[in-house]
Every structure is written in structure tokens, then in C-alpha cells.
Amino acid sequence: MKQNIENRYLSPFACHSPQSKGRLYKDDFLNFQRTEFQRDRDRIIHSDAFRRLKHKTQVFVYHEGDHYRTRLTHTLEVAQIARSIARSLNVNEDLTETIALAHDLGHPPLGHRGEDVLNKLMLDYGGFDHNEQTIRVITKLEKKYHEFNGLNLTFETLEGLVKHNGPYINNKKVPITIQKLNDDFSLNLSLFASCEAQIANIADDVAYLTHDFDDGLREKLFKLNDLKKLKLPALIIYKIEKKYPDINIRVLTHQLIRLLIAHFINDIVTNSLLIIKNNKFKSVDQIRNFNQPIIQMSDLSLEYMKEIRDFLFKNMYFNKDVLKKLSIASEMIEKLFTLYNQNPNLLPLQWKIFKDKKIIDCSKKVKTRVISDYISGMTDVFLKLEYNKFFNEDN
């Protein structure tokens, strides 16, 4: 009944769960009238990796304050924006939400700075990329079932996560984890992903490029007057102040972000509907085989977004004080990585064995990957606790 209701309201080019391409491993029958994509979503929410997102850095390290965004709050905001777009386009909201909730499961502690450090340490052993690590988490590292490792998610969810940044075209290097997954479950890496996956991808950009204004203002990295120099924020602030001349600055900031998100959602829906109407898509495979993404914003909004992105990179992401704090904290990753490499017996018991073999007897490549998996799964809080256990310092 649930799946019949779903099919009644979805567009023909949406991903319909009864037509899912399935899972790698045979799984239990669905119950509670759930769809396949709802099952995927529930498995992600109940995963260890998802819970750990609450203490992982988005931009500011965990101890900066209570109201700064974490990797978890960012993820929830992406899911909210993605659901809004999916519902407006009559595509599968459950699948869109699932991909959005899972897209950052592979992020290490300390955000992109932590990723840079792990990539440098793993350079001779395949490198480290948080998108590839997400695939490792959901296909290998989550251990919840006797019959298989990972979460055994559907083809459509895997496809959306593998192609989070688009298809692998123009000789774009395919990470080894994704190569192996593609061998087992052909994902057509050169094709675009579904509308649902494309929505989750663009919602990620909308979320961080709007909400980070709030964190940047809270941290006093820039002022509201600085935002008035940006085209779209200036238009919105002008309208708010004209309507409410004595508005509180915190309320104004919230309204600015709210209206920025509304602008981008409306623009994406309007522009994408035009592309869909002009091409008369009848199936998800037509979406996959199209020569460009279906989910797009207008050229004007792309300009707005580029201006916002450039501003945030200059004034926030590359701010010397922010980078300095992250750099000091990220030394903990480097020192722990070196320590575990020198003495793998310091790893927790479950990390000392790899495929029934002691990690200390494994190749350097295997050993470093296991250490990388362990450290990348740490929260900022646990990273510091683990560091203080071995090093008598206070970072």
C-alpha cells in the first residue's frame, strides 16, 4: 500500500522504490509498510557514523561555542533544503533525504583541515577523500549485520553518494573504493545520477553558503555592513530593514538566512522545472543519460552564489585565526597517526584485526588505511581525549 501511494504522487522521472535496482546482498523483507529508501534512511540515522557527526567540526572547532554549526546540524539543514526541493519537483523525497543525511558520513574530525592532514599522511597509500570515505563507511566500516559489512543500501542511494560531485567523466580519477564497488554493482560512473541525488548535491551548497553567514557574524569575522556589499544579501537586507526599521540584528540575521535559502530553493525549482518541461523526461534513465545536470539554478543565481562563496572563502574559511586554531588542533591527527603506525598495538581491540589477520602483520598499505579509517571516524572530542591519553599536552 505504501509503495502504491508513493507511485501515485511521484513524477515518472523520479526514482520509484518498487523499481529500485536493489541491494548488493539479499536482505530481510520490508515491514511497517516502509519503502526501500525509507529503510536506507533509517539505517543511516541509526549508524554509528551518523551519531558521531554531532561532535565533528563544520568550520569552527568543537569548543568554540554552543550555537556554531557542527557536521550534524549542517547535515540536517541540507536534508531540510533537499526535501523542500524534492517535494516541489514531485520526485522521491525519501531518497533525496537519505542521500542528504549520508553525504558527510566520511568527514574526519576538524573538518576540511583534518581531511587535508589525513590526505597528506596517506599520499603514498591512495590518499584520503571524505567522499570516498563515506562509501567506505556505508559499505565496509559500519558493522551491524552478521551477513555483510556496511549497511547494504540500495543502488539508488549508493549512486547518489558516489556521484555527489557529479559523474566520473573526462578521465576523472576514480578512487579505489568506488572502483571496487562499481565492479560489484555497476553504477555507470560516467552517467549523471538521479534527480534526487542532484538535489541533495545542490542543497549542500545552498546550506553551507547561507548558514555560514550566521556563524561568521557570530564569530565577528565580518559585519552586517560587509554583507550589504554583496548583491543578493544587500537586496534582502534592504527589504527587511525597510519593513522593520528597528529590527534586532540577531532577528535580521535569521531573516536574511531564511530569505536567502528561500530565494535559492525557488530559483532551483523554477529553473529545473523549465529544463524538465523542455525535455519531457519520462524516466530516471533519461535523467541519467542527459548531457547535463537537470537540477540547476539560473545564471543570475549562480553569480549570486559565486559572489557569496568568494566572500566566505576570503573572510571565513581562509581567515588566519580560524586556520591557525584548526592547524594547531590538527597536529593531534598527525601525531596519533605516527604513533599508531609505530605501534599498532595501541589501537583498540577491534581495529587490531583485519580480515582475520593481525594488523601488525599486514602490509604497510593495509595498516595505514586501517589507521586512517580509525582516526577519520573520531569526533573532535574523542580525538582530543585519545591524544591526551598518549601525549601530556593541552591543545
Tell me which oligomeric state these chains represent.
single chain
Helix proportion range: 55-70%
Strand adjacency order, main sheet:
1-2
Shape: globular
Low-confidence stretches: none
Rg computed from alpha carbons, rounded to a whole number of angstroms: 22 Å
Mean pLDDT: 91
Overall structural class, as computed from helix and strand content, comes to: mainly alpha
Number of helices: 18
Would you kindly provide a written description of the structure presented here, covering whatever features stand out?
The chain is mainly alpha-helical. It has a domain of 123 residues. It contains 18 helices and 2 strands. The model has no long low-confidence stretch (mean pLDDT 91).
Top keywords for this entry?
mainly alpha; two-stranded antiparallel sheet; single chain; 395 residues; 59% helix; 18 helices; 1% strand
